[in-house]
């Protein structure tokens, strides 16, 4: 028979009742029991450790997303409606290199795709 262990007196997956009834003193105190070998534990995961590789991958994906969004903003000329010339000039200085990076990345991916397509079509 499998055992199910609960954290305290709360039911598994349910929201405990937090009202005046929770302050009732129990006649028999709740003792901590060590679970058997084949138990299910509903306490959750306390240690949320990420590896360095996953942190770097998430950071690189975030940077690529921001660069892509700024490049697209430059391509679509979204900031042309801004009336302040200094702000428009600054935004153009920021978005133009992002557009160039996106354009070079697109050309690189297309050239790799064509090479792979050429090797398989022979």
How would you summarize what this structure contains?
The chain is mainly alpha-helical.
Could you characterize what this model shows?
This protein has helices at residues 52-76, 85-121, and strands spanning 3-5, 39-41. It has 122 residues and is mainly α. α1 (52-76) packs across α2. The protein is flat. The model has no long low-confidence stretch (mean pLDDT 78).
* Number of DSSP helical runs: 2
Strand order of the largest sheet: 1-2
N-to-C series of helices and strands: EEHH
Please give the share of residues in helix: 40-55%
Report the end-to-end length measured between terminal Cα atoms: 62 Å
Radius of gyration: 29 Å
The low-confidence parts are: none
Q: Compute the number of strand runs.
A: 2
Beta-strand level of the residues, as a percent range?
under 5%
Average pLDDT rating:
78
**What gross morphology would you assign?**
flat
**Class from secondary-structure proportions:** mainly alpha
- Biggest β-sheet description: 2 strands, parallel
Features:
mainly alpha; 2 strands; 2 helices; 122 residues; single chain
Topology:
Layout: E1 3-5, E2 39-41, H1 52-76, H2 85-121
Parallel strand pairs: 1-2
């Amino acid at each position: 028979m499998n055992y199910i262990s609960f954290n305290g007196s709360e039911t598994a997956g349910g929201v405990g009742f937090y009202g005046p009834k929770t302050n009732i003193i129990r006649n028999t105190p709740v003792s901590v029991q060590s679970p058997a070998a084949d138990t299910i534990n509903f306490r959750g995961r306390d240690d949320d450790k990420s590896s360095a590789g996953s942190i770097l991958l998430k950071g690189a994906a975030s940077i690529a997303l921001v660069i892509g969004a700024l490049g697209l903003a430059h391509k679509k000329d979204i900031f042309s409606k801004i009336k302040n010339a200094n702000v428009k000039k600054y935004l153009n200085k920021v978005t133009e290199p992002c557009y160039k990076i996106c354009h070079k990345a697109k050309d690189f991916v297309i050239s790799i795709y064509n090479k792979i397509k050429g090797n398989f079509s022979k």
